Amino acid sequence: MFVAWWAILVANTVFESHLNIAGGYFVLFFFAGIALATWISLLELFALPEKKEAQESDTSRRPSVSQIDQGLDAEQVDADERTGLLNRGRPTFARYNDEDTGDDHTATADKDGPHNREEQSWSRSLPTWTWLLQFLLVAPIVIILVGQIGLLVVAALHQTGQDGSSMLVLYVFMAAFTILILSPLVPFLHRLSWQVPTFMLLVLVGTLIYNLTAFPFSSNNRLKLFFKQEVDLDSGINNVSIVGISPYVKYAVRSLPEGETRFTNCAADRSSGRSICKGHGLPPRVVDPHSILPPETQYHSWLTYNVSRSGDANKARFMLSGRNTRACKILFDAPISDVHVVGAGPNDKRFPPVPEAGGKEIRLWSRTWNRTWTVDVEWEGQGPHEGQKTGMEGRVVCMWSDANQEGVIPALDEARKFLPVWTAVTKFADGLVEGGKRFII
After folding, report:
1. How does DSSP classify residue 222?
2. What burial class does residue 386 get, using C-beta atoms within 10 Å of its C-beta: 0-12 exposed, 13-18 middle, 19+ buried?
3. What is d(CA 181, CA 183) in angstroms, rounded to the nearest whole number?
4. DSSP string, 151-166
5. Which among 437, 436, 417 is positioned nearest to 227, based on CA atoms?
6. Within the chain, which residues score under 50 in pLDDT?
7. Could you tell me if 145 and 26 are in contact, meaning their C-beta atoms sit under 8 angstroms apart?
8. pTM higher than 0.90, yes or no?
9. 324-351 burial: b if 16+ Cβ within 10 Å, else e
């Protein structure tokens, strides 16, 4: 352990000095405790007798080979060609946890103290209390530090699986910190009686069965589900998407009114590993919640846009505006090569507005309401004939996220009311409601 943690300390020092990664500060405390415990182990050697004296004492205590015939165990006799290969050799150190079973060869109190009579004579002079001091140096501080870090990491990562991250990362962290917490106990486990590890084994089996059979979520440990409502402002069709881990998201949507018939389309998203359940949703009232008119009759006025092409080049200008919103975006079916927003701040030359491979989405944000954006875009491409320009298709979308007032997004209110108590609803994207129209250039 000393050698291993010395190597880890060197690696931690390199990370801290060269890479500015200081998260392994607990390694210093871990190594300090092990170094002191190792130092105590070396000091124990001063209690050993002289080598010559130990050899003479051990020789005087050993019976001759002929004594085997007198009923003595082979464990007390020097091994020779007649000694059985399966006989257990004499232990080096005393077995302090042996119980008195009435056998002459078990640990009993004799003139040399409570040591095993089979113990080699040279080790009988070693102190038997130093392990407790070593345990206090190695275990408590390390368990407290690493335990708190482990709890912090697990509390921070336990919901990342619902976000689409791999659960393998969480399991690796849990395994690593479990090993770190238990490693200081390894040198002292042999001093525990067999009842302790047996009890811990039963605890392991019981908790394993419970974790594999019990429902994993409750009102105190909820499953995070994601909500998104998409409205086609041209046709009036609107769909609600509930996103989460399968199969629990399917169990959850069944709790919604007519959930089994509305959310029949639950497909897996290969990129995130989650399932997306889509179904018809209640019409939102995000633009004018106090209007007495049905929101479907006003969809066409929620978003206005105009697209004009610039000459014969693959360039176009968008003029886009949304009602009661400060966030919109433009989605393209094919990548664009350049973009410029009129009136926006200067671009940092270190960061091009569009990556080298092109981009398919432009997000627009404003500090004022009902802003009209003017966006110039350019894309690459050539028609079937030389010099022929190509077109572009996509969607213009505006977003609404105000859910502070009940009735503005009835579909979200419905989800909050009827979804099980073991779920928590949050938004899937930048907007709770997205309304869009199709464009063709």
Report:
1. P
2. exposed
3. 6
4. HHHHHHHTTTTTTT--
5. 417
6. 64-65, 67-69, 71-76, 96-115
7. yes
8. no
9. ebbbbbbbbeeebbebebeeeeeeeeee
Q: Which helix (H) or strand (E) holds 248?
A: helix 248-253
pLDDT tens string 181-196: 888 888 887 777 888 8
Task: Give the span between the Cα atoms of 309 and 318, in whole angstroms.
Answer: 9
N- to C-terminal Cα distance for the chain? 69
Q: Are 115 and 90 in contact (CB under 8 A)?
A: no
Q: Is the Cβ–Cβ distance between 162 and 244 less than 8 Å?
A: yes
Q: How many CB atoms lie within 10 A of CB 60?
A: 8
* Nearest residue to 190 via CA among 282, 45, 91: 91
Beta-ladder partners of 374: 319
For tokens 């939102």, name the residue. Answer: 284
Longest dimension (CA), the chain: 114
- Domain segments of the chain: what residues? 2-38+130-213, 220-441
Write b or e for each residue in 28-42: b if 16 or more Cβ atoms lie within 10 A of its Cβ, otherwise e: eebbbbbbebbeeee
pLDDT at 417: 93
Residue with tokens 């040399």: 112
Task: Give the whole-angstrom CA distance, residue 325 versus residue 230.
Answer: 15
Per-residue pLDDT, 327:
94
The conformation of residue 216, written as its DSSP 8-state character, comes to S
